[in-house]
């Protein structure tokens, strides 16, 4: 018995992908709420909503599950910060430094990254759809399991090189760059 490949029209495929994205965003939206409840129970501050945090130094800080909705983070310093599970939505990130940061399971929604340093950052399992990358450095960054669009991958692959010193992942391989 032979099986024929499943073929979708572009319109149907587009609708299926849109529906899957809506479901995925809905499912992931519950994660920050759970993280907030957990952090609140531990007495940890969580919300940097609409804060002017430009030029702020967060280097080495433990910012797990923190939320930065609408925050101005231009030229902020997150070198070696622990941002695991942090949420950045509609934040501005121009010339922001995330070098060596743990950004595992970070969620960025409607964020523009311009001239941002992601060198040696760990972005494993990060949700990065609807994030715009412009002139971003990614040498040694690990994007294993990150959710990115084909266009984002194409843009990031232009500058991708190196191996992450913490995870040993090759940046180009973690992005799925073609040769």
Automatic annotation (TrEMBL):
- State the UniProt keywords alphabetically: Signal
**PANTHER family from the xrefs?**
THYLAKOID LUMENAL 15 KDA PROTEIN 1, CHLOROPLASTIC (PTHR47200)
Cleavable signal peptide: 1-35
Would the keyword Signal be found if you checked this record's keyword annotation? yes
Q: What is the official name of this protein in its record?
A: Pentapeptide repeat-containing protein
Please name one Pfam family that this protein belongs to: Pentapeptide
Under InterPro entries, the record lists: 5peptide_repeat, At2g44920-like
According to its UniProt entry, this protein's organism is: Phormidesmis priestleyi ULC007
């Amino acid at each position: 018995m032979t099986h024929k490949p499943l073929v979708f029209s572009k319109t149907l495929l587009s609708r299926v992908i849109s529906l899957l994205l809506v479901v995925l965003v809905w499912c992931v939206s519950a994660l920050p709420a759970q993280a907030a409840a957990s952090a609140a129970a531990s007495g940890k501050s969580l919300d940097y909503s609409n804060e002017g945090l430009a030029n702020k130094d967060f280097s080495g800080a433990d910012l797990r599950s923190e939320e930065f909705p609408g925050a101005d983070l231009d030229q902020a310093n997150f070198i070696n910060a622990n941002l695991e599970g942090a949420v950045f939505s509609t934040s501005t990130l121009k010339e922001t430094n995330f070098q060596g940061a743990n950004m595992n399971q970070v969620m960025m929604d409607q964020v523009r990254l311009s001239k941002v340093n992601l060198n040696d950052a760990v972005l494993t399992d990060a949700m990065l759809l609807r994030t715009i990358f412009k002139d971003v450095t990614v040498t040694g960054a690990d994007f294993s399991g990150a959710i990115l669009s084909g266009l984002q991958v194409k843009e990031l692959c232009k500058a991708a090189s190196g191996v992450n010193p913490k995870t040993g992942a090759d940046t180009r391989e973690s992005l799925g760059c073609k040769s």
